[in-house]
């Protein structure tokens, strides 16, 4: 703390500081997230999160993608409440969609440590996830959008919820659309545009190798997978433990752009749930395919809709006001 001028001024400064905190942070706590929540009480939050994400991506560019996914997997389980960050026996980290899969926890810890020294007890872990995702996208070349803030942190993890709510790459398009609806993302645009998050990042072989061999009685390889991409993936995935990594966007792996959608039209989607948006016989495709086509030729529209849907996703059942708490350590309740 910066109270270094002796006892007489210390008391006065503390009162001022408390007044500022109570007034400006609490005033915004009206049950709604706002884009200026920390402007009065921790204006450094943007710079601090951005510089930590920048450093992490400089060490490993993929981290931008990993942080984006962390926010998504937080929001789909008990809302955007930082529950994915909690350690312990009921931890969401060990649910099937997350185990050995979600990553970036150390980056969140480092951001939290910086924020606890700059503005102790002020910035929630749930808001850190939302901001880290934003900078992961932006620093990968994607759109900027105004993140809404003021979330508080949940008190429980929900491993069962993580197992049931998160979409699987083996789900049909209808099931995926339903899982988005279940958390309030009821516009098919949300499903398609947020799937565009797969323009960055990687997937392990175990999650798509069913497409590469013994696919069906009539086709050894998934017929909706480009054959030269299939050969290179077969080579990558042969042998090993299934944890080998392939780019979700084979065209421009670490750049946030609309090539993901172009790939789908060229049978170059990696996951069955990616390619299924245009190639499956699911009835949902009547709505998803035209959107893929639109985004494949209009990257401005992709960027604009992506930002809108990220804000919508970030607004899934947030805790506000005096609900929950602001954790001091993102891995444990206070
Ligand atoms: C639509 C349903 C979705 C399914 C079925 C799905 C499935 C997957 C799978 C299986 C992986 C690879 C995990 C692994 O290798 O262990 C993955 C990675 C990823 N997903 Fe999704 N996902 C979906 C939606 C989203 C959404 C909405 C976003 C964000 C807006 C997103 C962002 C990412 C990112 C960035 C990665 C790469 C992470 C990294 O490299 O660390 N996904 N997804
Ligand atoms: C998570 O993965 C580890 C290592 O592969 C495995 O030992 C463990 O059983 C998995 N946990 C759950 C809950 O499936
Ligand atoms: C866990 O998530 C499920 C599915 O969203 C929900 O029905 C359940 O109430 C949640 N449990 C807790 C303890 O939050
Ligand atoms: C769905 O989202 C798109 C893009 O954000 C928007 O233009 C459209 O009006 C939305 N549709 C409904 C029914 O809300
Ligand atoms: C899958 O196909 C390969 C050759 O294409 C064959 O050797 C293997 O036995 C098959 N596996 C199963 C489980 O059918
Ligand atoms: C990506 O796609 C663009 C446009 O279709 C093409 O010009 C470029 O060669 C592709 N790059 C890679 C690495 O596949």
Automatic annotation (TrEMBL):
<dbReference type="GO" id="GO:0140825">
    <property type="term" value="F:lactoperoxidase activity"/>
</dbReference>
<dbReference type="Pfam" id="PF00141">
    <property type="entry name" value="peroxidase"/>
</dbReference>
<feature type="binding site">
    <location>
        <position position="81"/>
    </location>
    <ligand>
        <name>Ca(2+) 1</name>
    </ligand>
</feature>
<feature type="disulfide bond">
    <location>
        <begin position="42"/>
        <end position="119"/>
    </location>
</feature>
<dbReference type="InterPro" id="IPR033905">
    <property type="entry name" value="Secretory_peroxidase"/>
</dbReference>
<feature type="disulfide bond">
    <location>
        <begin position="205"/>
        <end position="237"/>
    </location>
</feature>
<keyword id="KW-0873">Pyrrolidone carboxylic acid</keyword>
<dbReference type="InterPro" id="IPR019793">
    <property type="entry name" value="Peroxidases_heam-ligand_BS"/>
</dbReference>
<feature type="binding site">
    <location>
        <position position="199"/>
    </location>
    <ligand>
        <name>Ca(2+) 2</name>
    </ligand>
</feature>
<feature type="binding site">
    <location>
        <position position="77"/>
    </location>
    <ligand>
        <name>Ca(2+) 1</name>
    </ligand>
</feature>
<feature type="disulfide bond">
    <location>
        <begin position="125"/>
        <end position="330"/>
    </location>
</feature>
<feature type="binding site">
    <location>
        <position position="167"/>
    </location>
    <ligand>
        <name>substrate</name>
    </ligand>
</feature>
<feature type="binding site">
    <location>
        <position position="74"/>
    </location>
    <ligand>
        <name>Ca(2+) 1</name>
    </ligand>
</feature>
<feature type="disulfide bond">
    <location>
        <begin position="75"/>
        <end position="80"/>
    </location>
</feature>
<feature type="binding site">
    <location>
        <position position="257"/>
    </location>
    <ligand>
        <name>Ca(2+) 2</name>
    </ligand>
</feature>
<keyword id="KW-0575">Peroxidase</keyword>
<dbReference type="InterPro" id="IPR000823">
    <property type="entry name" value="Peroxidase_pln"/>
</dbReference>
<feature type="signal peptide">
    <location>
        <begin position="1"/>
        <end position="31"/>
    </location>
</feature>
<keyword id="KW-1015">Disulfide bond</keyword>
<feature type="active site" description="Proton acceptor">
    <location>
        <position position="73"/>
    </location>
</feature>
<feature type="domain" description="Plant heme peroxidase family profile">
    <location>
        <begin position="32"/>
        <end position="334"/>
    </location>
</feature>
<keyword id="KW-0106">Calcium</keyword>
<feature type="binding site">
    <location>
        <position position="249"/>
    </location>
    <ligand>
        <name>Ca(2+) 2</name>
    </ligand>
</feature>
<protein>
    <recommendedName>
        <fullName>Plant heme peroxidase family profile domain-containing protein</fullName>
    </recommendedName>
</protein>
<dbReference type="GO" id="GO:0006979">
    <property type="term" value="P:response to oxidative stress"/>
</dbReference>
<feature type="binding site">
    <location>
        <position position="92"/>
    </location>
    <ligand>
        <name>Ca(2+) 1</name>
    </ligand>
</feature>
<dbReference type="GO" id="GO:0020037">
    <property type="term" value="F:heme binding"/>
</dbReference>
<feature type="binding site">
    <location>
        <position position="79"/>
    </location>
    <ligand>
        <name>Ca(2+) 1</name>
    </ligand>
</feature>
<dbReference type="InterPro" id="IPR002016">
    <property type="entry name" value="Haem_peroxidase"/>
</dbReference>
<dbReference type="GO" id="GO:0046872">
    <property type="term" value="F:metal ion binding"/>
</dbReference>
<keyword id="KW-0349">Heme</keyword>
<feature type="binding site" description="axial binding residue">
    <location>
        <position position="198"/>
    </location>
    <ligand>
        <name>heme b</name>
    </ligand>
</feature>
<keyword id="KW-0560">Oxidoreductase</keyword>
<keyword id="KW-0732">Signal</keyword>
<comment type="similarity">
    <text>Belongs to the peroxidase family. Ascorbate peroxidase subfamily.</text>
</comment>
<keyword id="KW-0376">Hydrogen peroxide</keyword>
<keyword id="KW-0479">Metal-binding</keyword>
<feature type="binding site">
    <location>
        <position position="83"/>
    </location>
    <ligand>
        <name>Ca(2+) 1</name>
    </ligand>
</feature>
<dbReference type="GO" id="GO:0042744">
    <property type="term" value="P:hydrogen peroxide catabolic process"/>
</dbReference>
<keyword id="KW-0408">Iron</keyword>
<feature type="site" description="Transition state stabilizer">
    <location>
        <position position="69"/>
    </location>
</feature>
<keyword id="KW-0325">Glycoprotein</keyword>
């Amino acid at each position: 703390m910066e109270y270094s001028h002796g006892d007489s001024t210390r008391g006065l400064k503390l009162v001022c500081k408390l007044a500022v905190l109570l007034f400006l942070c609490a005033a915004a706590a009206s049950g709604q997230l706002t884009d200026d929540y920390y402007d009065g009480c921790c204006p450094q939050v943007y710079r601090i999160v951005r510089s930590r994400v920048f450093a992490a991506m400089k060490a490993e560019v993929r981290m931008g993608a990993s942080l984006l996914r962390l926010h998504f997997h937080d929001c789909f389980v008990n809302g955007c409440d930082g529950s994915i960050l909690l350690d312990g026996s009921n931890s969401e980290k060990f649910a099937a969609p997350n185990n050995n899969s979600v990553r970036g926890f150390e980056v969140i810890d480092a951001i939290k440590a910086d924020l606890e020294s700059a503005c102790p007890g002020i910035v929630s872990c749930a808001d850190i996830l939302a901001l880290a995702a934003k900078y992961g996208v932006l620093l990968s070349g994607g759109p900027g959008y105004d993140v809404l803030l003021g979330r508080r942190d949940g008190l429980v993890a929900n491993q069962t919820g993580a197992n049931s709510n998160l979409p699987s790459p083996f789900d049909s398009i209808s099931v995926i659309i339903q899982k988005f609806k279940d958390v309030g993302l009821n516009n098919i645009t949300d499903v398609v545009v947020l799937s565009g998050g797969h323009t960055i990042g990687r997937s392990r072989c175990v999650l798509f190798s069913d497409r590469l061999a013994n696919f069906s009685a009539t086709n050894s390889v998934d017929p909706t997978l480009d054959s030269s991409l299939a050969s290179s993936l077969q080579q990558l995935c042969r042998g090993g433990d299934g944890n080998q990594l392939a780019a979700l966007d084979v065209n421009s792996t670490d750049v946030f752009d609309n090539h993901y959608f172009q790939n789908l039209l060229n049978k170059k989607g990696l996951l069955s749930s990616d390619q299924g948006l245009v190639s499956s016989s699911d009835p949902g495709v009547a709505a998803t395919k035209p959107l893929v086509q639109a985004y494949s030729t209009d990257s401005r529209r992709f960027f604009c809709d992506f930002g809108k849907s990220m804000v919508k996703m970030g607004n899934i059942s947030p805790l506000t006001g005096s609900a929950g708490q602001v954790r001091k350590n993102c891995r444990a309740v206070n």
